[in-house]
Amino acid sequence: MKGKLTEEEIVSGLEKLQGWSREADGKWIVKKYRFSDYLAGIAFVERAARIAELELNHHPMISIDYKLVTLRLTSWHAGGLTALDFEAAARFDEVWNG
Amino acid sequence: MKGKLTEEEIVSGLEKLQGWSREADGKWIVKKYRFSDYLAGIAFVERAARIAELELNHHPMISIDYKLVTLRLTSWHAGGLTALDFEAAARFDEVWNG
């Protein structure tokens, strides 16, 4: 489950998600979440970070540009994307969907 | 107080802070805060964000790369750095120092 995914697996994984795309070099998946309230975005970050630390042990790169929160995922140990990145993406979307 | 600072004022402002520096284009000041615990970094972000929203009405760009939290400040309306950026930097350091 923790090996680097094939191209086919990545394409298939992205089809099952909404709003996630690959970054240019192909080693990351990224999603931008927009909030109408700044502190709602911060609360989302806090919840996603707890899940990253306590459930997944897998941490997204997070950037907060006012009401726009960007999450980026990769698996350093594998040098690319693994099943864990897609599992994490789905979990963060669950948090976002409330 | 909200006008763009002169070079001299920026140099003087940076001398009064610890760990803040200018980014290459000179329009931003930046500091990287390192934490020994991931969720401690997230708690810092949460506290800094509340101050940004509720006290300062001035929001840093925030990036979270595991236990490394980076804050970047600029004043869009002034096209550069203003006194508010330095006030915000000092407040975030207060939060960080506990």
UniProtKB/TrEMBL annotation, chains A, B:
Matches recorded under InterPro entries: PCD_sf, Pterin_deHydtase
GO MF terms, alphabetically ordered: 4-alpha-hydroxytetrahydrobiopterin dehydratase activity
Entry-linked SUPFAM superfamilies: PCD-like
Pfam families: Pterin_4a
Catalysed conversion reaction: (4aS,6R)-4a-hydroxy-L-erythro-5,6,7,8-tetrahydrobiopterin = (6R)-L-erythro-6,7-dihydrobiopterin + H2O
Keywords, ordered alphabetically: Lyase
EC number annotated for this UniProt entry: 4.2.1.96
Enzyme kind, highest EC tier: lyase
Domain of life where this protein originates: Bacteria
Entry's family note: Belongs to the pterin-4-alpha-carbinolamine dehydratase family.
Record-given protein name: 4a-hydroxytetrahydrobiopterin dehydratase
Species in which this protein is naturally found: Paenibacillus piri
Lineage: Bacteria, Bacillati, Bacillota, Bacilli, Bacillales
